[in-house]
Amino acid sequence: MTLREAVVDAVCGQRDQIPLILAVCAVMGLLLVFPLFLLEPGTVGYTIAVLDGTLVVVCFAVLGPTYWYCVKRRMD
User: Fold this and answer.
1) Residue 18 has pLDDT above 80, yes or no
2) How confident is the model at residue 37 (pLDDT cuts 50, 70, 90)?
3) What share of the chain is helix, strand, coil (3-state, %, to 5)?
4) CA distances to 4, 22, 50 from 74, in Å
5) Using CA atoms, how far apart are residues 66 and 38, in angstroms rounded to an integer?
6) What is the phi/psi pair of residue 39, to 5°?
């Protein structure tokens, strides 16, 4: 078994937890809408909100396809 297969097996073994993490990221994204509208650009809080938004986008970009791949792999 190669390292890639071992990592994929380990990640797909936690497939049931991925929707929970995606739900937490969705809530974080919804709560992030308010600070982005209320804070002024250039403030420290706005910078933190932008970094948090980046974290939410990366979370969806990584875990969404990962969950899809694990479900597809399980069906095969």
Assistant:
1) yes
2) confident
3) 90, 0, 10
4) 17, 19, 36
5) 34
6) -85, 150
The whole-model pTM stands at 0.81
Burial category of 11 from C-beta neighbours within 10 Å (exposed 0-12, middle 13-18, buried 19 and up)? middle
Q: What confidence tens digit (pLDDT) does each residue in 42-74 have?
A: 899 999 999 999 999 999 999 999 999 999 988
- In the chain, where are the structural domains located? 17-75
Nearest to 18 by CA among 60, 75, 76: 60
- Distance between CA atoms of residues 17 and 38, nearest Å: 33
Length of the chain measured in residues: 76
- Buried-state track 39-75, b at ≥16 Cβ within 10 A, e below 16: beeeeeeeeebeebbeebeebeeebeebbeebeeeee
